[in-house]
Write a structure and sequence with these properties.
A two-stranded antiparallel ribbon has the order 1-2. It has two helices and two strands; from the N terminus they run H-E-E-H. Among the domains are: 44 residues, no CATH class; 37 residues.
């Protein structure tokens, strides 16, 4: 008797594995963040066959790890009531975060100069 796997099939999104990204994915296997750059060394994103706005080949550099990486995600909330609740929470949360930041800024070692000190 053969055993059937009860493990469910993987249904989540997979990364885009086009050939243009081969250098990027090879870097991740070595725990490196490789960035595509133009001929002047300016990074751009997403990996592609040619440098944006030119017909030059893409060059690759390893990230120094000293910059900032920004990301975002988009979610669709199907239930209208939950969608409203989340929207209301985010409005209230923003107000509290802004108030906390303003309070903390009073004690920060660096402050914005007042107009008479500029």
């Amino acid at each position: 008797m053969s055993e059937q796997s009860t493990k469910p099939a993987y249904t989540k999104p997979l990364p885009d594995m086009r050939p243009e990204g081969d250098h990027f994915w090879a870097g991740t296997r070595e725990h490196k963040l490789l960035l595509p750059t133009d001929s002047s060394g300016t990074p751009f994103w997403y990996p592609r066959a040619l440098t944006p706005g030119t017909l030059e080949p893409v060059q690759w550099i390893e990230s120094a790890g000293t910059g900032s990486v920004y990301t975002y995600s988009v979610h669709y909330i199907a239930d209208p009531a939950l969608r409203r609740a989340i929207a209301n929470f985010l409005v209230r949360e923003r107000e509290h975060v802004d108030a906390a930041c303003a309070e903390l800024a009073e004690y920060a070692p660096y402050r914005k100069a007042s107009p008479d000190q500029a």
